[in-house]
Amino acid sequence: MSDGRALGGTVEVREAGDVDTPAVERIVEAAFGEHGVAINDVMARLRGVEEDMAVELVAVADDEIVGCVALSRAWLDARERLVDVLVLSPLAVAPERQGRGIGSRLLAEVPPVAERLGAPLVFLEGAPGYYGNRGWSPASTHGLERPSFRIPEPACQVLLLAGHEPWMTGRLVYPDAWWRLDLVGLRDPELGEVERALGGGR
Ligand SMILES: CC(C)(COP(=O)(O)OP(=O)(O)OC[C@H]1O[C@@H](n2cnc3c(N)ncnc32)[C@H](O)[C@@H]1OP(=O)(O)O)[C@@H](O)C(=O)NCCC(=O)NCCS
Description:
CATH architecture: 3-Layer(aba) Sandwich
Distance between the termini: 40 Å
CATH class: Alpha Beta
CATH superfamily: Gcn5-related N-acetyltransferase (GNAT)
Structural class: alpha+beta
Largest sheet: 10 strands, mixed
Number of strands: 10
Bound molecules: coenzyme A
Strand content: 25-35%
Helix content: 25-40%
CATH topology: Aminopeptidase
């Protein structure tokens, strides 16, 4: 896909295939700790449903997978119609490789890939500081509603792409797999802690 230098090593970002799944799962568990198991579980379910997983990218350094990002399908429940959109989750970099630009490299690949998939919008739940510096903005500022109040408002973020039109407002709807595994938003006490850190609640 593209090459880049990340602190002394060449990093290539390419599309992942089935053969990469074990390495991706290891990265996710290493990066997310105890939450990694549930994230891998939802990824497996999304991969198993036709069309729910849109694309997975991996960052490769020294022939080793060192980071990953996934885009899966969701809907925007707009007044006019359901709009096919994408959700970015997870983004993970091997702990020993973090802070060297690999996460940023993976994120930089998302807009062209999402455009190619025809998505007008990509959503994610994440730290506003990190993503805000990389082209994302709070969904609420574009008339877009989070699927749960348990996603702190500034943490529900969106990337507007070329296909976005002003009428595309409404609520983001996640596919079933996210709810079955209770992976939408946060729950207390973590929710309260994150809300306090972000300086606001609902
Ligand atoms: C978040 C993550 C993907 C970033 O990847 P990375 O390769 O370390 O990031 P980069 O080197 O491109 O960028 C470094 C930036 O990440 C920030 N960062 C690192 N971990 C972070 C975290 N958990 N939350 C918010 N920001 C984080 C650093 O402060 C730095 O910010 P700045 O460039 O705006 O000053 C990676 O640290 C990771 O896998 N973390 C654990 C899993 C996770 O939290 N994923 C994201 C869920 S929202």
